[in-house]
Amino acid sequence: MFILNLNKNKSALLNQFYLNFSKQIAIFLIIFLLLPFANVVYSETVSEEELDYYVSMLSNERAKVRKSAIIELAKIGGSKAEDALNDLWNDEMVEDIIFAIELALDTIHLKSTDTSTRLIGAKEIGAKAGTLSATSGLEGEIQAEELFQQIVVDPSQKRNVIDTLHHALEIEKNKKVKHKIEEAIQKFRLGDSDAKVRREAAEYFGEVADPDNVMVLGRALYKEKDEEVRAALEKAVANVEWNEQVAITLKQLFNGFTISSQYLLIALGLAITFGVMGVINLAHGEFMMLGCYVALVSQSIFASYFQPVLGLYWALAIPLAFIFTAGLGWGLERGVIRFLYKRPLDTLLATWGVSLILQQAVRNYFGANNIDVPSPSWLLGGIDPLVGLHLPFKRLYIIGFTICVVTAVYWLFYRTRFGLKIRAVMQNRNMANCLGISTQRVNAFTFALGSGLAGVAGCNMSLLSSVGPSTGQNYIVDCFMVVVLGGVGKIVGTIAGAFGLGETNAILEFFTSPNIGKAVAFILVIIFLRFRPTGFSATSVREDKGIVSITG
Fold first, then answer.
1. Which parts of the chain span the membrane according to its record (predicted)?
2. pLDDT at 340
């Protein structure tokens, strides 16, 4: 009997457990299904007849009637209201109505379920609010700035927009959208009739210190009469201008860092080739150019045959660029260069001829015009560590990729047996040959490695600029400068030369122009080499009883 009761109790407990578990699963599913709508600013519920009535009012001849309909449709929202407003915008001729339509569409966008659409709506409302910020109060007709040619904005529409902004701010979850909504509200507050409200808005913009708001603050300061508000606006403008200078400086240094990374990636192969073989490869820039076109071809193949995974084309382009250009470099060394050792002038002419052949071949096949290579989707966008400072993912990727490649090359040179052979040939070719090292094999591998690095650098360069047959010529002179500055065959010196030249170019181009900046940078390089001919990595040569040793 006791066992029977125990089984009944156990069965009842299991049933209760399953019931509670089923309820929890049901609640979870409901929450999961409603989660995508958590950020939505819901539109007002109206009947279909009422919506059709307001849409029909848009065709009324009287501007005031059309304006009233626009305001009501902005309150209602929805795709039908948006389509009707877009149709009216295409046909409308009155500037006032056009401005009202745009403001209504921005308000509807603020109610979207899509985050990017809400962000666009908040930005557009903020831009228009900045234009209206110098107005006083909500009473009567409100006139916009000269930018909008004295457009009259209905006060009820402005009130509706402000109410929508406050409502959206309360339920918005995305930080970026929320910030833009708050910014739009504060821009409206700059035009409030209460001096205290205007002062608080000015203090807000002073704390945010976004350079994009400097024009809004300048207009508000120009028309402001209250001394306390003027003081707050002046302080805000000063903060914004200071933050703008800091952001510009950091951005310029970051851009210089990116270009320096590219210089390093291209010059690294050149430094290795020249250091080991003593060969000045004038076709090195064309190997970089071929890497650009490998990226273009890879993107085209994925766009035609693998559209669902188009963003992954970069995973094919990088290794393919290295393999293709390295193989071409190996063939060039085996077929041409190895017959011209100790004949530097002939080597220069031969590699120059190869560069012309490659340029013309690309020009015949792809055309003479520059082509833009679409970036992978995962490299679009960026991060904003400071207000006014945007760091694109493409440039961050290039810097990170360069660090990885330089680390790998350093490991190859200083942590592997083959790297030891390369350094031995670099220091004393004859002695290395006597010790059984195959210098011909080292030469072929080194030239292939240098060419492959140039191809990979070109693949990355396609992220920043368009691709053309003359792309390599735009960078080859700078890369030779990097090699000379760093010291022949010195990895650490090449790094110093690349970042020294890249940052100098970036700073000088900012204060002058690209052409003048580059010319001044070259003059500084010449002056530097006058006092330090061996570059950053000093190399001393000592001869002792026919044995040459190099230390640096």
1. 263-280, 312-332, 396-414, 475-501, 507-529
2. 82
